[in-house]
Amino acid sequence: MTHHFKQQQDRKALMSNIENIVTEQASRIADILTGAVDPHVHSGPSIAPRAVDHLELAQIYSDSGFSAMVTKDHDYSGVICAQMLQDHYPDLKTKVYSGIVLNNVVGGINPYAVEHTAAMDGRIVWLPTLAAENHLEWEKTSGWVHPASTQKIRPATAVPLFDDGRLRPEVLDLLDVMAATGMALASGHIHVSETKIIFAEARKRGVERLIFTHPEDIVGASMADTKEIADMGAYVEHSLAFFVEGSKFRNRTDEELREHIDLVGAERTILCSDLGQVGTLTPLEGFQNGIAACIGLGYSDAQIHQMVAGNAADVIGLTG
């Protein structure tokens, strides 16, 4: 055997091994994704540009074995869209749910809108995002602005949560509605210090399902803050958009992802896509890359599945 021929054979064997590894990894990721739940995804229609609409995403997720998705729009409750999709596309394997974000367009802290969302099988209520006082302060130095806020509608104004350090009556009314309906309360983009107060009051009033939204960005949370909120019984939800390779929003490393997961454990961690915007990864790619990162960090398939499926299913009420 000549030296050149041996080099060719070695190269072919190496390429074959690489192909096998890639195939095995893809199969492993697909298995982990079976039954996945995306509780925070920005599909359209929306006033902001979206790369995929609710139906297209539901079809993509169905093909990948997802059990559920929860659409999130900063400006409207998507429960009517979700109901129509479930009625007219009964063969979808992925159940489509939605919720409501308490920004200006829906009247801010509006218990009437929340009751309507619950009556239409909404699963999550987000405290203000684009209209959170904290978000508006963050925006001043972030270099980011909502794509439609100055083009199609007036800029957001802060939705008040407190009067003289006390929760406003409509916030207390909201928490009672949350307790009565069983929907999950997510912190949105309010400051972590506000989240602690509202979540503590929510617990006192019987709210059982709490989600701390992306502590890694916008909300000003330290690791100690995050641990404190998890100890209240909240799930800690991380946006893969901030972590995964290929996302235009990536501003955190794999090692930071490990630190966040290990802080509260896989049993209190939810990994969502927070994707659907134009010019970046698709939500499915976000999950695939996120799972690959978790595999690389040494988490077991069972742990990863819990973070992309079981915990989110629990918090939106799919598991009893």
The total count of strands amounts to 10
Estimated share of beta-strand residues = 5-15%
General form: globular
Terminal residue distance: 66 Å
Structural class comes to alpha/beta
* Main beta-sheet annotation: 8 strands, parallel
Rounded average pLDDT: 94
Q: What strand order characterises the main sheet?
A: 1-2-3-4-7-8-9-10
* Secondary structure tally, helices: 11
Structural topology:
Blueprint: H1 3-33, E1 37-41, H2 54-63, E2 68-71, H3 79-88, E3 95-101, H4 111-119, E4 124-126, H5 133-142, E5 162-163, E6 166-167, H6 169-181, E7 184-186, H7 192-204, E8 210-213, H8 223-231, E9 235-239, H9 254-264, E10 269-272, H10 283-296, H11 301-315
Parallel strand pairs: 1-2, 2-3, 3-4, 4-7, 7-8, 8-9, 9-10
Antiparallel strand pairs: 5-6
Helix pairs in contact: 1-10, 4-6, 7-8
